[in-house]
Recover the amino acids of this structure.
């Protein structure tokens, strides 16, 4: 947890003042037994009512001053803890945004959500309690022991025996419970993953009538979490009874020893009461310390989990070249090699891709060259590597072998933000965010004018249904676009990419929910653009790619063929199989 304390650096004043005021409160609290002893030995023994009233007023004053110190300490500790939580949460969110797709795939979204929410909240609570109690409780414990020696050294030897015993119990249980709470948090991750899958896939679950199996799965994982929490709770639950037994045993010994010394005239009755009060203070503070240690143990386990994410270093090295620099070099001839190659918008040279943890390559020895303004069709069976191929262009993943060049420059030379700002990506799954249509479209370009938004809607064939909405561009989209059809969502995601006016446009099977007429109109509109980007059109439909300038045919991660439709239909068996499976009457006529 110590590595996260750097997020308290802006709250140095609060982290010093919070324990300081708690120590002041503890100091006033340690004076109370001495005042009580004086009331008994002087006021009550001498029947001096005025002295009793005066001492009672002193007790009230000590209580009020302690209350003010306590409230002040809680204010500063809460401020510091809230700032700490804000800093960690912000740093973690920014770090997650910098992680590569490979890192995200490895960690898992459910784990990251748990880190961002419950883990940070637990760590924040731990910081709050540490600032308020971590110094106060030991101060009271050892302060009470020292004060006991000032009252009577011989009787105070009982404190010397009791405090080490209590320390063994408290810290022994802490060492046992720490790994148990880590296991509890791990089980909580599984619960969150199951819940997330059920909520996001509720329609699939109901369609296949899998409610009961999923309920049983949730109950099974919930039972595992409950059992782990119960076991950790049972161990932690030993803290209070064991401490009470030891402290009450100490009080019994103290009363016995005190009675003997009072009888011998070596100790007054008020001093015995003061010693018992100090022992009671130790009991209360050690119970607080025990609970604090449990909370801090949980917080430390959560902090380690947060740190484990923060310690993940993205394995993708970022270049320094901007898109503008690459363009200037190719125009002015500063870099002759780049100038020659710059005619190709995208060039793959012996490119292979292996996902982390995968048993084999997802793409093997891919070679092609896409000229500026060309439409490149990518087709193949399910799992052939179509999405893997286009995901390499915006550098969502790095090729494990080979080289990719974008407008003449190696893709690893570019700054990722500069590269992606000129690439429009429409993923397989249409993702829209809660907000208006206008707000969603401006994800592509936040400075886009109304005319540019209208143009993108026309090109994507979305203008008709948007105009049919009473609110138009101000129509409110629900989370995930739940109040839109599949085809409407796909057209809006295409419009969002077109608003950016990209140099390279990737349509990753993004027209699967469109009818053939709308799909054809979309392709025709893109071909007719004044400044046509280089388009990568991934599709399962042969009709969608057959008019492309080049068609890349993938089969199990390898290029089975490349060329125009007329060339492939004669020379590529894999393309023939796909095409004739969708247009069987042409096979008959050709036969």
């Amino acid at each position: 947890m110590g590595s996260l304390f750097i997020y308290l650096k802006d709250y140095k004043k609060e982290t010093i003042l919070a324990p300081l005021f708690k120590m002041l409160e503890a100091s006033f609290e340690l004076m109370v037994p001495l005042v009580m002893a004086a009331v008994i030995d002087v006021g009550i023994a001498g029947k001096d009512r005025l002295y009793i009233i005066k001492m009672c007023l002193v007790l009230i004053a000590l209580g009020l001053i302690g209350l003010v110190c306590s409230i002040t300490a809680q204010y500063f500790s809460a401020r510091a803890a809230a700032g700490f939580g804000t800093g960690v949460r912000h740093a973690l969110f920014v770090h997650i945004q910098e992680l590569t797709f490979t890192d995200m795939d490895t960690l898992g979204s459910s784990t990251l959500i748990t880190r961002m929410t419950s883990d940070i909240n637990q760590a924040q609570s731990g910081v709050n309690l540490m600032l308020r109690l971590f110094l106060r409780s030991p101060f009271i414990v050892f302060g009470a022991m020292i004060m006991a020696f000032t009252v009577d050294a011989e009787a105070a030897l009982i404190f010397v025996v009791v405090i080490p015993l209590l320390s063994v119990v408290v810290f022994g249980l802490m060492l046992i419970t720490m790994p148990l709470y880590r296991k509890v948090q791990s089980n909580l991750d599984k619960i969150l993953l199951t819940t997330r899958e059920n909520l996001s896939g509720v329609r699939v679950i109901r369609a296949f009538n899998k409610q009961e199996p999923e309920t049983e799965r949730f109950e099974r994982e919930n039972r595992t979490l409950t059992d782990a929490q119960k076991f950790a709770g049972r161990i932690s639950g030993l803290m209070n009874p064991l401490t009470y037994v030891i402290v009450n045993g100490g009080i019994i010994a103290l009363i016995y020893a005190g009675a003997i010394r009072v009888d011998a005239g070596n100790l007054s009755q008020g001093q015995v009461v003061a010693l018992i009060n100090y022992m009671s203070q130790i009991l209360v503070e050690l119970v607080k310390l025990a609970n604090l240690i449990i909370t801090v143990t949980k917080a430390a386990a959560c902090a380690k989990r947060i740190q484990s994410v923060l310690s993940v270093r993205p394995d993708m090295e970022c270049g320094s070249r901007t898109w503008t620099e690459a363009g200037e070099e190719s125009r002015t001839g500063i870099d002759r090699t780049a100038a020659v190659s710059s005619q190709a918008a995208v060039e793959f040279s012996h490119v292979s891709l292996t996902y982390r943890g995968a048993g084999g390559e997802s793409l093997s020895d891919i070679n092609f060259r896409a000229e500026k303004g060309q439409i490149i069709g990518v087709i193949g069976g399910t799992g052939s590597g179509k999405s893997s191929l286009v995901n390499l262009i915006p550098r969502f993943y790095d090729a494990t072998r080979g080289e990719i060049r974008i407008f003449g420059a190696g893709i690893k030379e570019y700054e990722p933000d500069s590269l992606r700002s000129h690439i429009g990506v429409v993923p397989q799954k249409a993702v829209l965010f809660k907000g208006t249509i206008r707000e969603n479209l401006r994800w592509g370009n936040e400075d886009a004018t109304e005319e540019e938004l209208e143009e993108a809607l026309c090109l994507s064939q979305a203008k008709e249904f948007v105009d049919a909405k009473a609110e138009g561009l101000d129509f409110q989209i629900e989370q995930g676009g739940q109040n839109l059809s599949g085809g409407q969502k796909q057209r809006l995601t295409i419009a969002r990419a077109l608003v950016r006016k990209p140099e390279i446009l990737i349509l990753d099977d993004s027209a699967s929910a469109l009818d053939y007429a709308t799909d054809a109109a979309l392709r025709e509109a893109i071909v007719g653009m004044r400044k046509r980007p280089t388009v990568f059109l991934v599709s399962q439909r042969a009709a969608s790619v057959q008019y492309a300038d080049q068609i890349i045919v993938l089969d199990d991660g390898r290029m089975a063929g490349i060329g125009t439709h007329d060339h492939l239909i004669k020379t590529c068996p894999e393309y023939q199989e796909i095409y004739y499976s969708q247009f069987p009457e042409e096979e008959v006529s050709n036969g």
